[in-house]
Structures are given as C-alpha cells and as structure tokens.
Amino acid sequence: MAVSNNIKGIRESKGICQVGLASATGYSTKTIGRVERGINAPSAEFMLRIAKYFNMLVEDLFHVEE
Q: Which among 26, 34, 53, 58 counts the fewest CB atoms within 10 Å?
C-alpha cells in the first residue's frame, strides 16, 4: 500500500512555500518535497506534525492507496 497526499495543493492554496512549511514543522525542504511527490513514505510523526500545522485531520491530508 502506498500513501498519497495533497500537501502541495493545500500548502499552495494557503500561500505557504516549502521553506515556510519546513521551518514550521522541523523538516527539511528536501523531505517536504520528497513526501509531496510521493518519493518518500511519510512517517506517523511527519503526518501528525503536518496535520497539526494545517489544523486539519491526518485523513484530510493523507490517503492510503490500495
């Protein structure tokens, strides 16, 4: 199973750049970009931090592909 996400779309709709998201969550821009593109699978901690930053549910940002 793969985990897809809509981080980039939400981030861009809120006018937030990767640098801003990385700074606010403690992850590098490289990590943010690789997860956004689906190259890296996000850890549970990553998903929780991103969801908290956007004040959204994890399920609204990440989806399990079967």
A: 26
**25-34 pLDDT per residue, tens:** 999 999 999 9
pTM of the model: 0.89
Residue range(s) defining the domain that contains residue 45: 2-65
**CATH number for the domain that contains residue 61:** 1.10.260.40
Number of domains in the chain: 1
Are 54 and 10 in contact by the 8 Å Cβ rule? The answer is yes
CA 26, 30, 36, 40 torsion: positive or negative? negative
